[in-house]
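Extended Data, panel c. Modelled sequence:
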Amino acid sequence: MAWPDFSVRADEPEWMDVRDYPLEDFAAVLDDLETVNLVTLAAPPTLGFLGRLTQGWPAGSELRVADLGYGQGGMLRRIHRWATERGFRPRLTGVDMNPRCRTLAQARTPGDMEITWHEGDLFDWAPAERPHAIISALFTHHLPTPDVIRLLRWQEATASHGWFVNDLHRHWFAWGGFSALAFVARWHPCVRHDGALSVRRAFVPADWHHMLAEAAIGDAAVRWHPLFRLCVGRLKGAAVPE
């Protein structure tokens, strides 16, 4: 395997974005990705952001969260449990272009969880009520840089209280570590290929500072989290919901 150039983002497409997998095979890919997210501590940064966003909110407050590129919906189910345990009333929406994601998310979500699975382009989504928070995980690295800048502007305009991007840090150790782990774990070939490529398509802090400047957003926080998560978030300081 040739040693990649980590000084710039890779632009080759991931298999998941260009191959038409049958539903059963696609489900196996998402199952392995769910394991990857668990092993690499994907959820804590996002839950920590929601904790900061809802600090001081009274019990019984409605919490509206939109998740972009929800996959099989695991993050929103975890947020639903997290919010319910804290006495909030979660109203959650997932937005994803892939119809297979909607099929799998609906099948794997208990009926008592109020989660809406929207299929379509996020830029065409017009929520009846603004979400308090817009989140994404391992989504932005799929986009070309101009679309990430557009996304930042859209999030800023659409979320009432804040937004949080949870993605990867482009780094040789993350690439090598994932490649070795995926080989040992014998994850699906698509996961092994796309996971390593995702690191190469991901970002370094300078990338985010440049894109935030282009989006005219001056006070977002760019933070590193284990394991090689590079997250960008902004709290708007909006009023506590009544």
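The chain has a mean pLDDT of 96. This feature is highlighted in the accompanying rendering.
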